[in-house]
Amino acid sequence: MKKLLFALLILFVAPTLPAQSKAPANAEKSDPEAKKVLDKIRKKYEGYKTLEAAFSLTIELPGQDQEVQKGTIGQEDKKFRLEMDQQIIVSDATTTWVYLKKNNEVQINDADPADTESGFLTPRDLLKRYQKGDYTYAITEKITENGKLITQIEFKPNDKNSEYSKLRVSIDEKGGSIKAIKAFGKDGSRYSFAITRFTPNKTFDAGYFSFDTKKYPGVKVEDLRL
């Protein structure tokens, strides 16, 4: 689940970073109209120095009751802070902290953008993968939601070993924002990520992108850094 969750969240913040000038190797396989929409959104997001978003994550697993989690994510360049009901994940681009609320335990890892196996993909890393042609994408539908025209684009991973079969991204073209992302797992699971509030260019307090153990009395620290 961790990789899928990060794929959802980081795909959302990834457009804030500039695209590479080199065209994707599989550009001819993707929908040119979808590329125009994505380029438009990326240019909009490129003007943001920081962003914060509140979201609702609906998790559907085969044979289990539907679960809904809410949280916020803040991002500035490679730094990010993800807060959810059960955990807090923070990265200052050098160190990543994973705090498990129930256990009052924090795991500390080196932040390694190249470590795609850990699931801790930085926005910059995922965007590079996207630009390199790791996904084939196309517009599948245009619908009206709450009076807004929503363009849906589906991304299919070119990696046959990917945990998910596709991602569906809903974009408000007129408003210039991503409204929702849904991941379809190969095991039948579904992860729906809906953005409920979006705040660009927010000023974050000092220390926002780090984890201060002093604020968590009795916290157990597991330092996994090399």
Describe it.
This protein is α+β, with helices and mostly antiparallel strands and 226 residues long. It has three helices and twelve strands.
Blueprint of the fold:
Blueprint: H1 2-13, H2 32-46, E1 51-60, E2 67-76, E3 79-84, E4 87-91, E5 95-100, E6 105-110, H3 123-131, E7 135-145, E8 148-157, E9 164-172, E10 177-185, E11 190-200, E12 220-223
Parallel strand pairs: 6-12
Antiparallel strand pairs: 1-2, 1-11, 2-3, 3-4, 4-5, 5-6, 7-8, 8-9, 9-10, 10-11
Count of discrete alpha- or pi-helical segments spanning 4 or more residues? 3
In this structure, how is the largest beta sheet organized? 12 strands, mixed
Mean pLDDT: 80
Structural class: alpha+beta
Q: Cα distance, first to last residue? A: 25 Å
Apparent shape: globular
Unreliable residue stretches: 13-28, 115-128
The count of DSSP E runs of length 2 or more, i.e. the number of strands, is 12
Could you estimate the helical fraction of the residues in percent? 10-25%
- Backbone CA Rg: 18 Å
Topology order in helix (H) and strand (E) letters: HHEEEEEEHEEEEEE
Record the strand order, biggest sheet. 7-8-9-10-11-1-2-3-4-5-6-12
Query: What fraction of the residues are assigned to beta strands by DSSP?
Result: 35-45%
